[in-house]
Structures are given as structure tokens and as C-alpha cells.
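Summary for the steering committee. The consortium agreed at its last meeting that each partner would contribute one worked example illustrating the joint modelling workflow. Our contribution is presented below. We chose a case with several input lines so that the handling of multiple components could be demonstrated. No manual editing was applied between input and output; the record is shown as generated.
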Amino acid sequence: MSGKLYLARNKSVAARLLGDEMMLMSGKDSTLFSLNPVASIIWNAADGATPLDEIVASRICPEFDIEAEEALRDAETFARELAGHGILQVSDEPIARPASTQQEPK
Amino acid sequence: MPELTATAEHFSVLIEIGGVPVRVNTTNAEYRGMLEERYAGFTAAGGEAEYEFEVNLSEAGFLDPDADVQVTREANVWSLRRGDFLAEWEPERRRGRIRQTPNPYSIDSVLRIIHTLVLAREGGFLVHAASAVRNGKAFLFSGVSGAGKTTISRLAPPDAAVLTDEISYVRKSGEGYTAYGTPFAGELARAGENISAPLAALYLLRQGPENRIEPVSAAEAVRALLGNILFFAEDAELVRTVFQAACEFAAKVPVRRLTFLPNSSAWDEIG
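What follows is the complete predicted structure of the assembly.
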């Protein structure tokens, strides 16, 4: 990854934590996504202001036994995939007004 | 010479499914007869309608016959279309119009779509599921085509009333849910009983070598439910509403996997 990558949750997405699975549904095409614990951390941290490398370094690497460079590569692939479905917004600059979601705790 | 005028005779049929009375108006006596026959057991002689539709029968050719169903909203007006019908519905005015060819399937589809939209606003839904009432409690049996919805309905014991073998009607009621009978039949080819009961459980159907009931996780329940809820609208707000409705349902209603032998012993596990 050459520069910083910022992520923000898309406001048209419904999200809910069910057990240890974060489930998302795209309002755009009704696609249902199920996030594993690592992906859930990225989703929850996607506030538009925190760069992805910081999310990986501060929240993923300490919790999972994974090398930082590899984790960042996987995280970026994941973020861009979700962005392709309209779930996340990604930008190389901070996203000024991160959209909120209807996320509700279990 | 006095002015010549002609007034078409008007007929109407009040179709009440899930406690939601919908009046369908037509000038065609034959169509009225078809409605009364198709929705026998779900029509009312009189009373107030919550929603009212005017039906205009047309010959085929006003739409692309191969067009898939499309449900969209612009401001307060819902537009429903498929190769055989074109409809508009204004929920606030409680009125709508349907243009269709003279066949029973178009109105059936329009009614299903309207009910999905009505139910979504209150946290309920139509779902691909058989349902039945036993000992005052309703049970849903959900699954894709071939999973066993009609089979489990056929195997229902005499003390169980089948609500439908194809499309179940679920409404929120207080802290729980109520299942209603529907005229939407599958292979059983007969309307369900027009009764309702508090919903006790949802079973995800699978035919197998033995009868077995297993718990499913909340996430699996929501995934299965969303895969079977009837949902047509291309509308982000409604997508979120249906998603939250499925999550809430899975949190309140026991959802289990039912593997069953296709014989009457399957019902030993239920009720």
C-alpha cells in the first residue's frame, strides 16, 4: 500500500452483531454479508478518520497472531471488496462526514 | 333528443388476509367470480377496507411479457410491474390501481407484494414457509423449494390446522408474533385455514434419515430467514427495515433445524 487509506461505513447499510458474527445487509442490492472477527474490527473502526494501517497496527495485530504487513495487505483487499458492494467508502484522505449506520448491539 | 349515457356495473370483493382487508373493485363480473373462487374463505361480505384497488383489465401486449417483477417507490407512490401487470399504490391515500390481463396470477402477485410492504412497516413479513396451528400454537416450517414444506403439511395430524403449505403470514403482536392462514397455496393446491395463533417456533426444514431437532445460531437463523422472506422492493430503507425485522424475529422466536423422515412420525417432535 503506497499511502494512507481511510474507511467509512456507508449509511445505507444495516448491521447487527449476532453472537460473534457481524451481519451486514446492503441497501443497494440486498446482499447479505457475514463478517468474521477480524473483519468486524475493521468495520467497527471505519470512522472515516482513522487510517487503515493504524487500525491494523493498534487493533488487529495485538489481538491476532499476524504479521503487520500481511495483515494490512489483507485488510486493504477486504476494504476494497466491501467498497465494491457499497458497504464501505474508501478514500486516500480522511472522510469528513463519516456516515452512520443502523448498527445495533445484540 | 335526450343525451345517451352508459354506466358500467361495478363489483367489489373484500379480501382479508392476515387481518388486513383489501377491497378489489372491477367492472368485470367474470373477474369478480374468479376472485371469489380463488380467495374463498378469505373474503368478507361487508366491512371497511384498509386498502382499495381499482382493477382495469387489458388484453396482453401493454407490457413486455418477459419482464421480471419490479417494485419501486417515488415519493409516496409505489409502482409494481411485471410482464402481466402494472400497479400503483399510495399507502397514505390507501388506494391503488392495477392494470392486468384477465388472469388470477397477476392479482395474486400484486396482493402478495402489497402485503409484504404493509407488513414490513410493522416488523412482520411473508415468508416461504408452511405453517400450522397445533394446541393453540403456530409453527413455521421454512425452506426452499423441495425442502419439504408441502410434505410436512400433508403429514400434519388431525389435531393440526394447516395455515399454508407455501407462504406464511407473520405479524408482530405485542412482544411476540402471530401467524395467519393464507390463500397462497403451493403443491397442496388448497388454501390454508383462515385462522391465527401465537407463533411458538420456526423450523428450518431438511429431509433426512431420522427425525431430529437441532438448535441454530442467531446468525444462521437470520441468514435462513432472509433467504426465505418475500421481498421485492428496490428500496434501501425497506431493505434495512426487513433486515432489522429478521434480526428481531430471530431474537424472540426459537429457531431450530428440523431434519425429518417423510412420514407422520415427524410431527411427534412438534407441538
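The beta strands of chain A are 6-9, 13-18, 21-26, 32-35, 47-51, 88-91. Chain A has one domain: 6-89.
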